[in-house]
C-alpha cells in the first residue's frame, strides 16, 4: 500500500516547507513542533501490559518473516499526517490517564479482512512514560496539539501506575 515515512524538516527544500500556508519560511527556519495523536489503549491495565502485548505481537510477526515494529490499525487516515511525522507521537490513554507515548514513524494504507480501507500507524518500539494526565474516554483517535501533550517523565525515579498516582493525589488532597 501507499507508505508515508517521516522526513526530517531539515532536508526539505524551501518550496516544500510545511509552513507554506502561512507564507514562505526562511531557509534557516527552526523546526516546527510536531502534531501528535491520542488514542485509548483498551484492554490494558498499565504500561507493562502494553509493552508485553506489543513484544508478543512483534515476535509473532518476526516468526512469519514480517516487520516486527509495532503498529496500530485505524479506520480514519490522518489528513495532517505530514505534520505528525515531523516528530509526533501517539499518546496512549490507559485507565483514563495519558501515561505513555510512542513516536510515530509512518502511515500505510491497508485493507482489513473484509476489504475495507484502513490506516496502519507504524510506531517506534520504545515506550516513553509521560507525566500522568487525566483524560475522559472518547472514540477513535484525536489530534493532540504540542502544547497539550504531557511532558515526559525524567526517569530519575520509579514510575507510578495511573491508578496508584491518582489514589495518592486523592488521598493527599485537602
Mean model confidence by pLDDT: 80
What kind of sheet is the major sheet? 8 strands, mixed
SSE pattern: EEHEHEEEEEH
Task: Report the radius of gyration as a whole number of Å.
Answer: 18 Å
Structure description:
By secondary structure, the chain is an alpha+beta fold. The chain has helices spanning 47-63, 81-84, 162-172; strands spanning 3-5, 36-40, 71-74, 89-94, 97-111, 117-123, 128-134, 141-144. Strands 1, 2, 3, 4, 5, 6, 7 and 8 form an 8-stranded mixed sheet that branches. A hairpin with a 5-residue loop joins strand 5 and strand 6 (117-123). The longest helix has 17 residues, at 47-63. The N and C termini lie far apart (55 Å). Mean pLDDT is 80; it is low at 5-31.
Keywords:
174 residues, alpha+beta, 8 strands
In terms of topology, how is this protein built?
Blueprint: E1 3-5, E2 36-40, H1 47-63, E3 71-74, H2 81-84, E4 89-94, E5 97-111, E6 117-123, E7 128-134, E8 141-144, H3 162-172
Parallel strand pairs: 2-4
Antiparallel strand pairs: 1-5, 2-8, 3-6, 4-5, 5-6, 5-7
Task: Write a brief caption for the model.
The protein has helices at about 45-65, 80-85, 160-170, and strands at about 5, 35-40, 70-75, 90-95, 95-110, 115-125, 130-135, 140-145.
Amino acid at each position: 500500500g501507499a507508505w508515508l515515512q517521516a522526513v526530517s524538516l531539515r532536508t526539505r527544500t524551501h518550496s516544500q516547507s510545511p509552513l507554506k500556508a502561512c507564507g514562505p519560511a526562511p531557509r534557516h527556519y527552526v523546526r516546527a513542533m510536531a502534531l501528535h495523536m491520542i488514542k485509548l489503549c483498551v484492554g490494558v491495565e498499565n504500561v507493562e501490559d502494553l509493552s508485553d502485548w506489543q513484544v508478543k505481537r512483534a515476535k509473532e510477526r518476526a516468526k512469519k518473516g514480517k516487520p516486527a515494529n509495532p503498529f496500530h490499525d485505524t479506520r480514519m487516515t490522518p489528513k495532517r499526517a505530514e505534520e505528525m511525522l515531523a516528530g509526533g507521537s501517539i499518546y496512549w490513554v490507559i485507565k483514563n490517564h495519558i501515561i505513555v507515548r510512542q513516536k510515530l514513524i509512518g502511515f500505510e494504507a491497508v485493507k482489513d479482512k473484509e476489504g475495507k480501507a484502513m490506516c496502519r500507524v507504524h510506531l517506534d518500539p520504545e515506550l516513553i512514560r509521560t507525566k500522568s494526565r487525566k483524560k475522559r474516554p472518547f472514540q477513535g483517535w484525536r489530534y493532540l496539539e504540542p502544547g497539550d501533550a504531557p511532558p515526559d517523565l525524567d526517569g530519575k525515579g520509579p514510575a507510578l501506575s495511573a491508578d496508584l498516582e491518582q489514589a495518592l493525589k486523592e488521598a493527599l488532597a485537602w
